Amino acid sequence: MAAGAFLELLEWLREVLLQDAVFLRESYPDHPIFQDPVFSCPEFEAFASKVQDTCTRDHEDSHTTVIQKAIPVVAEKLRTLDEFAQATYTVTFSPGQGAAGQHAEIAGAHQQRRRAPRETVLRSEIGPSQAGEKNYLSTRKIIVDEVRRRAQSDGLTEDIVARQMDEERGPSSLDKLFKAIRKDRQGEKGHKRASGQFNVSGSEKSMAQ
């Protein structure tokens, strides 16, 4: 069994040596081993030509295969990038200009807020149709008013407050931010109304005494 394995190894080494000899002879044509008649016989020349053709053809095919595999991947990346550029925008609010002073930019521009101290970027989807334009602007006016209210209440600049609101909102839409502001305002009104009723009842009770 060991002898059989050894013979198989010799056969494999013979094949490897013959294949390598084709390229070694080109690199070292004057080496004594390649002066042997076996390396100049027609059979070896035919074998050398076949090995060289096979290696060249496989090399070209591998490059072609890589290119063919890369084309669909690149095309998909470009298509995704194009869809992202068409579907995503950034709405930039300048608090001093009111709700009408808006400017749309590509979403990646939100990184510029560090370089634009007077503008705060609030991410949003593409704007509504003309039929809902009034509601669209009204929503954003309420957000701007909330920025001003918090700035006045907390003693901060509108830029800082707007950035804080943008960070608090995270990936949520402006519509969710609007609903949250409206809910808070309704809660404040209800609290004030309840406080007013309590004061009136207390006054009446004092007068009755």
From TrEMBL:
Residues 164-209 are annotated as: Disordered. InterPro entries: Ndc10_dom2_sf (IPR038279), NDC10_II (IPR031872). Residues 3-44 form the Ndc10 domain. GO terms for molecular function: DNA binding. Keywords: DNA-binding. Residues 196-209 have a biased composition (Polar residues). Residues 164-189 have a biased composition (Basic and acidic residues). Gene3D superfamilies: Centromere DNA-binding protein complex CBF3 subunit, domain 2 (1.10.443.20). This is Centromere DNA-binding protein complex CBF3 subunit. It comes from Hirsutella rhossiliensis.
